[in-house]
Amino acid sequence: MFKRHSGWFMSLLVTICLPPGVALGADGCNRLTATGNAEYPPYLWRDPRNPQRLIGANAELLKQLGARLGLVIDVVYAGPWSRAQEEVRAGRIDMLAGYFLTQARQQVVDFIDPPFLVTSSRVWVRRDEALVYRGWTDLIGHSGGTLVNNSNGQGFDDFARANLSLEAVPTATQAFQKLILKRNDYVIFEYDPGLALARTLGIESVVQALEPPVSSEGLYLALSRSSTCMSAALRERVAAQMQDIVSGPLPQALLESNLELWSSQQRQAVKP
User: Fold this and answer.
1) Model confidence at 271, in pLDDT bands (50, 70, 90)?
2) 108, pLDDT greater than 90
3) What's 143's domain CATH number?
């Protein structure tokens, strides 16, 4: 993590230590950090060549944002999804790359509107014991799996708390493994990341995602309120640049190219 310093002397010291050609931002922070769900292809996943780095559509989008801001944004692995969220809340990391908006989350981070992509959450089940599923109420009485501190949209979250039995685990891999072992009847997880994970685990023929989606939610950039680098002026610049990025074709193009990148990496991984 990056330590931030204030004061003339420390600013001078940091400036002296910077590599040639790297400009220091007006707020004293020339680099920002971001993180997200590391089990989230094609949006985010750990770089096979550098597991402490996250790559994917969300990471590529933040590279574009950083270039527009004149800053470097490092997208780093911060542990399981619940830990990544806590690192941002605490200000040890500056932003989250891909977050569903809920009332509780709005109390601790700043969401940049509009969302840069929209994704759907599905009910994942074993093919040989598929649930009869037409809507949320069909899940009542069945045991489900989800991720710690995960959201599937405010409406479904409220319904689930009141009506469903959901066991939260740290990683999507664990959730799908419990499904395969018949320790849960279903898993709530997003479609594209779920499909990518099923292929990676070799269980694509064993599980399936049911229709209709549980929810369709926007993926937002969320800024830490505890970050010493996130000044009011920088937040305004981030918001302005994100609005411009989202208004064009870039987010969808990055999603499609990273779907292909993920697939290519998986093909390489299984070569003899």
Assistant:
1) low
2) yes
3) 3.40.190.10
- The pair of three-digit structure tokens given for residue 50, joined into one six-digit string: 């550098």
167 vs 99, 176, 194, CA distance in Å?
21, 12, 17
Tell me the two tokens of residue 124. Answer: 């994942």
- Average pLDDT of span 182-192: 95
Domain count, the chain: 2
Angstrom CA distances, 183 to 79, 151, 207, 250, stand at 25, 21, 14, 41
Is 182:62 a contact under the CB 8 Å cutoff? no
Q: 199: domain range?
A: 120-215
Two tokens at 28? 């004293």
Q: Is the peptide bond before 212 cis (omega within 30 degrees of 0)?
A: yes
Residue with tokens 């995602």: 209
pLDDT grade for 136, boundaries at 50, 70 and 90: very high
pLDDT at 268: 78
Tell me phi and psi for residue 29, to 5 degrees: -120, 110
Sheet holding 95-99, edge to edge: 72-75, 31-35, 95-99, 207-224, 109-126, 186-190, 143-147, 165-169
- Do 26 and 114 fall into the same domain? yes
Residue 105 tokens read as 């989350």
**pLDDT exceeds cutoff 60 at 21:** no
Residues 109 and 223 in one domain: yes
